[in-house]
Design the sequence.
């Protein structure tokens, strides 16, 4: 059977790498993104790589009014969705969020509220189809607020908590919910940062982990795996000490 | 992303990468990234060029590897339009299961479409299919002075001719339209013929090139006297029946950077003798996968590191047909005498097909390529002798492999270079071009 994959933020580097893996297995796609040119290029590419069918829906994630329409279109197109991946996000300029309040709120909206709104829109459909996997990309940054990116971290923490609750709710219906917490990944989001080479993963290796975690119905995925230990240590450091460390 | 070097790791000029994900990233990247007044940038594909032709004058390069999507594919006609960062390895992965293969391929599949176009690369089937860009029907480019432009053999012909084989100087190639070639099977009917010397090479070439699409010879450049020019002639045709199967991905990597070159006179002699004698029979017929046939070197992903920190240079020349026998013989003699040089040299009879680029490398004649560990004095002395021989015969060196040719030499060997210079994008400049065009 060909799997049906639904992706919000389909132009994300991580999502694209995940989609290519499924395309090679002949999956069909419902792709949502805000940039129609990019969306079209990715559709053509996935088709060439083996996707059976690709349907697209152009939408800014912050335009929550369109969510019901988008979700209906997906189920109308394919009847069931096997995997939904929520991947969109931005990396705000932390310094700017400290003085430019409207900017901070807008960024929080994109990274937290729009994800919550999308998940709320999807949950009912998954509940009634009584199967499938919802995978949401959070971040290790949500595990503890750090001076360098705590607005982003706060948004990812909000998702983390929301998804944790959603997992419990949907468990009863046989729907599985996965939280993905990548560390540093080399995508356009991080292209301008000077990330430590050894700690930075490729989107392909992260996609491999995500694929596996979906198949194995894992609840929380740290990718690459060693981040689970890094974050364990970071969470354990007492606040009295943590506030003196520059991270 | 780490800083980058060319494949030969010589000259050792680290390049600061700027990743391009989408075509609309290009204008901004071209203006933002560079140093020194933002000029002197260059595009970098997979960095499989050996010398300094893929190094930017400013040491800031736009890396296209993430701009790698197929934009359109017609599996009836085998025409694909893809972004320039797509690698040939990916083209095979996508097209082969559907019965299509690359019309022309270099000896590694880890090159981008943009890189293959910018060097108008050639392969083992040059005498039948010509260069890569004979199969390119259209290019979509970005020029800093014009924006996005299309060119093809019929539209903006001069820009097309200057861009194919144009060393990445005439603009950023965004997308490439390529005509693939039909195959029935992923396997190759291969025949390996052992030859004892250069005379025999020319005889065999005469005999087999007419009946085989792919031909190439490996020769032992260290053998001298009676054994001079001994080697293996490898010919093949795409099989007419058999499975259509992708080779398993993967390959090994060098575990460490050796502090010195593992390639030295001793290891060379041992290796070459073992290799030559590995086939005892005169002729061996077999069926091999496309990976083993076209890409034997790709099995060690970063074999270039085996030369250590000093790096290496490849010397590749092509000598016009009429004098090729004498000149190639003289070149091999010089190399043999010097006792340096690589495991194996590659000898290839290039065909009559006229290359579509103004400064494409191949011409009708014989091409010889081999690697030399970087040793400043030894290489300089040897190369100047070889250059003189090649030059006198009206031959030329391959810019994709070069780190040494002089401006005077280049201008004579590539008389059309000024037409490329006239169409150079003002923002782009390579270290190679700086050296040879001044
Ligand atoms: C093991 C091995 C075997 C080889 N065998 C052969 C062979 O048989 N025949 C042959 O012809 N060559 C051969 N080569 C050389 C190789 O095919 C060429 O150097 C090729 O151009 C490398 O492509 P790349 O993507 O790595 O480009 P790079 O080496 O990164 O760049 C090459 C040139 O292309 C330009 N360029 C790249 N992308 C773009 C773009 N999007 N827009 C504009 N300019 C661009 C760069 O500016 C540069 O001038 C071999 C190389 C190796 C390592
Ligand atoms: N890269 C990392 O190091 C890293 C680490 C941890 C977590 N993550 C998370 O991984 C996810 C994917 O990011 P990535 O690394 O793949 O980066 P990316 O390639 O930059 O992808 C981000 C995507 O989000 C989309 N997007 C942003 N705002 C949007 C909006 N308002 N509406 C619709 N789409 C919007 C972007 O669309 P456009 O193409 O239109 O811009 C882009 O496709 C994000 O949630 C990110 O927070 C990344």
Sequence:
């Amino acid at each position: 059977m060909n799997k049906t994959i639904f992706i919000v933020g389909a132009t994300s580097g991580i999502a694209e790498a995940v989609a290519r893996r499924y395309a090679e297995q002949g999956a069909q796609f419902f792709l949502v993104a805000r940039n129609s040119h990019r969306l079209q290029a990715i559709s053509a590419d996935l088709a060439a790589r083996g996707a059976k069918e690709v349907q697209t829906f152009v939408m800014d994630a912050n335009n929550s009014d369109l969510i019901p329409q988008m979700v209906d279109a997906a189920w109308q197109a394919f009847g069931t969705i096997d995997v939904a991946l929520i991947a969109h996000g931005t990396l705000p300029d932390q310094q700017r969020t400290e003085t430019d309040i409207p900017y901070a709120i807008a960024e929080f909206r994109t990274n937290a509220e729009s994800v919550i709104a999308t998940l709320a829109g999807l949950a009912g459909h998954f509940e009634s189809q009584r199967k499938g996997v919802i995978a949401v990309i959070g971040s290790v940054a949500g595990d503890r607020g750090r001076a360098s990116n705590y607005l982003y971290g706060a948004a990812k923490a909000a998702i983390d908590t929301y998804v944790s609750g959603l997992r419990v709710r949907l468990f009863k219906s046989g729907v599985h919910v996965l939280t993905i917490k990548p560390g540093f990944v080399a995508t356009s989001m991080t292209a301008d940062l000077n990330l430590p080479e050894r700690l930075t993963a490729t989107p392909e290796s992260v996609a491999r982990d995500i694929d596996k975690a979906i198949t194995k119905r894992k609840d929380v995925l740290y990718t690459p795996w060693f981040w689970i230990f890094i974050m364990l240590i970071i969470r354990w450091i007492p606040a009295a000490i943590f506030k003196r460390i520059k991270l | 992303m780490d800083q980058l070097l060319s494949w030969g790791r010589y000259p050792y000029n680290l390049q600061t990468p700027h990743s391009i994900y989408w075509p609309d990233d290009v204008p901004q990247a071209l203006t933002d990234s560079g140093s020194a007044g933002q000029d002197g940038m260059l595009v970098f594909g997979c960095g499989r060029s050996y010398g300094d032709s893929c190094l930017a004058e400013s040491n800031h390069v736009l890396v296209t590897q993430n701009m790698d999507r197929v934009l359109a594919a017609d599996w009836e006609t085998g025409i694909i339009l893809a972004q320039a960062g797509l690698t040939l390895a990916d083209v095979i992965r996508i097209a082969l299961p559907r019965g299509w293969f690359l019309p022309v391929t270099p000896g590694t599949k880890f090159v981008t479409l943009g890189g293959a176009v910018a060097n108008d690369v050639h392969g083992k089937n040059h005498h039948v299919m010509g260069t890569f860009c004979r199969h390119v029907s259209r290019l979509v480019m970005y020029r800093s002075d014009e924006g996005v432009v299309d060119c093809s053999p019929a539209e903006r012909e001069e820009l097309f001719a200057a861009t194919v084989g144009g060393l990445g100087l005439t603009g950023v190639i965004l997308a490439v339209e390529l005509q693939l070639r039909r195959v029935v099977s992923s396997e190759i009917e291969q025949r390996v013929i052992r030859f004892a010397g250069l005379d025999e090479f020319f005889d065999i070439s005469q005999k087999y090139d007419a009946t085989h699409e792919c031909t190439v010879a490996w020769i032992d450049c260290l053998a001298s006297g009676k054994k001079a020019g001994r080697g293996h002639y490898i010919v093949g045709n795409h099989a007419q029946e058999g499975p259509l199967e992708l080779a398993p991905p993967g390959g090994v990597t060098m575990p460490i950077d050796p502090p010195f070159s593992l390639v030295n006179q001793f290891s060379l002699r041992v290796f070459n003798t073992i290799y030559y004698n590995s086939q005892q029979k005169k002729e061996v017929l077999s069926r091999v996968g496309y990976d083993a046939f076209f890409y034997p070197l790709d099995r060690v992903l970063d074999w270039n590191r085996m030369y250590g920190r000093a790096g290496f240079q490849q010397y590749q020349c092509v000598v016009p047909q009429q004098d090729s026998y004498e000149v190639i013989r003289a070149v091999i003699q010089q190399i043999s005498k010097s006792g340096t040089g690589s495991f194996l040299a590659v000898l290839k009879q290039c065909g009559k097909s006229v290359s579509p680029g103004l400064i494409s490398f191949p011409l009708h004649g014989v091409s010889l390529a081999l690697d030399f560990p970087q040793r400043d004095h030894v290489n300089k002395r040897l190369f100047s002798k070889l250059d003189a021989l090649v030059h006198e015969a009206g031959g030329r060196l391959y810019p994709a492999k070069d780190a040494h040719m002089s401006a005077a030499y280049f201008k004579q060997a590539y008389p059309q270079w000024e037409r490329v210079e006239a169409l150079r994008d003002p923002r782009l400049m390579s270290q190679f071009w700086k050296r040879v065009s001044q």
Notes: The CA atoms of residues 90 and 108 of chain B lie 12 Å apart. Residues 376-392 of chain B form the longest helix (17 residues). The interface with chain A takes residues 1-2, 18-19, 21-22, 24-25, 66, 69-73, 80, 83, 94 of chain B (CB under 8 Å).
